[in-house]
Amino acid sequence: MAQSRSTERNGNHTSISVFVLLGLSDDKELQLLLFPVFLTLYLMTLVWNLGLIILIRIDSHLHTPMYFFLSFLSFIDICYSSSVSPRMLSDFLKDENTISFIACATQHFVGAWMALAECCLLAAMAYDRYIAIGSPLQYSAIMAPDLCWKMVAAAYGSGFLSSLIQTASCFHLDYCGPNVIHHFLCDLPQVIALSCSNPFISQMVLFLVSTIVGFGSLLFILLSYGFIVSSILKISLLKHSAKAFNTCASHLAAVTLYYGTALSVYMNPSTSHSMKQNKVLSVFYVVFIPMLNPLIYSLRNKEIKEALKRVIKRVTHLLQRDNI
């Protein structure tokens, strides 16, 4: 068990300096087998998301609000995965998985910031799709670059402030007893449960932030899609209706995947079985979703495929010219 030392933090006595993360499994052989798998998945997440950001930046045909938001979504996925995956990978190779009090708070802060910002950004992308379908003639005027930058700043700012409030309320508590977290990351509900002071305020802050930002964004997305469906139904030609809905399919898939997994993780009661189930779902939430998002938006997207072909053609032409 990790050793603890006493510190004084803003007048509150805190006796725990480290937490112990139990990780995905107690089986060291299994962890060694999982290491190359998760390393590959993490590298794929970095390559695909970074590649999508670069492609959107260098191809002028993709300089539209939809791809502008998508590039920032990819950046969020990189940061969110990087807040957990490198430590999880290093823990696979360790006998004792400990994390300092400060590192635990930092991991949660960055992870929650990105997760909450993604909720807001998905809502902004739903609004963008509503304007594109409901008011196509005014789309360029409404979704001007200035508004897009403000919406991105609002998404990141809301995530930052919400995460800061959550993290401060949780890690300001006294921790003087058990320091074992039954997870591979600093899961806030489990951290709060280890506190030896009254956690009511922290639990209420966690609930309110999750409700206002998480469910508030989901409600906005659902309302946007309600208006989108209404606009699509007004389109008389079936071909045009299908094309309009196709522009929303990738975003709708990403929202379903993101919120479906998140609700499955945090709406389950805290039982021994659900904790094991939550670890598996959290792996999907932390590792797979950031990797899948760029694929969801790229595989059936003709504009991204065409942009990739143009970039490859340009690079090939430059290489051939240099060889001449």
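The above is record 1. Record 2 follows with the same two-line structure.
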Amino acid sequence: MLTRRAALFGAAGIAAAPLIATAAKAEEAMTPVAAPADLSKLKRIKRELVAPPFVHEHEQVAPGDPRIVEFEMEIVEKEIEVDRGAYLQGMTFNGSIPGPMMVVHQDDYVELTLINPARNMLQHNVDFHAATGGLGGGALTLVNPGEKTVLRFKATRSGTFVYHCAPGGPMIPWHVAAGMVGTIMVLPREGLSDHKGRPVTYDRVYYIGENEFYIPKDEKGNYKRYADVGESYPDTEEVMNGLIPSHVVFNGAVGALTGDKALTAKVGEKVLFVHSQGNRDTRPHLIGGHGDLVWEHGKFSNVPDRDLETWFIRGGSAGAALYEFLQPGLYAYVNHNLIEAVNLGATAHVKVEGAWNNDLMEQVVAPTEMIS
């Protein structure tokens, strides 16, 4: 089944057409035939999603029995200025890159209403790495422009998990590289625990989504700009297949988490950093700090690593690191491929307020001119 605007994309429409048809057939083949689950006795709660790096209101310890947690998410295709003069024809969940982070507890039910407005050009869906069956929900959430669907799944495993768009074939890497990646955090019902099984809480949580973009250039070396997402496809595919990104960024753009958009904290606060990457491996590092507790694989049922300087996030996954800030100042949170951090954009800043502790670090002698 072609989208209503497939004829408008030129080469993109031609490339997408058989994939859209295949995806639609897959959706029909996966139509459930079992009796609906009876969850009528479960309490329902609705959560309003917020744009990263922030996370919607949630409890760290489950307040009672499992619940059905309702979310609503709209797909937005739009142009995004990734850097000065560099524009991405983006595809997003709820208008942000990365998509918003959802938080539930293990054994809760996630109920997502996914909306694909008629103004969009392409089919979209959601593959939840936290879900079981039906291509992570991808086979049951494929929506054309002008359609919406509702998916419910049980969050059976705790941890941080990626979700992304996966409409089929070469559309999958294109949609992911255009920004359609997010994270769901499934907390243990009793909350987080440290390496000795003791309860752990956080004062703040920040979600950092790392993306690599492949923005084409013209023969003069200037970034090209397109009228819509469909027009951008042929050139973008060619750049993507070269596997050399033009940008590697946190939260959708160079400088998205620096300057007046920097993250904030206070001395003595414990901050949970959740970090995702949809495609490529990355190595988060907090300059001047550490990972006190790190769930490198993102799975809270595993014992966390301790005192890491740099940790590893595999492509297609999300991990979490907890750190208690001990000194004030400006911290850089980076991908420790420093070429990607400094030259391509994968840097965030954390402004920390509080009193300096000379016992931890002291400038014994200020820089002075050497006399020969």
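Residues 6-31+42-189 form a domain with the Immunoglobulin-like fold (CATH 2.60.40.420).
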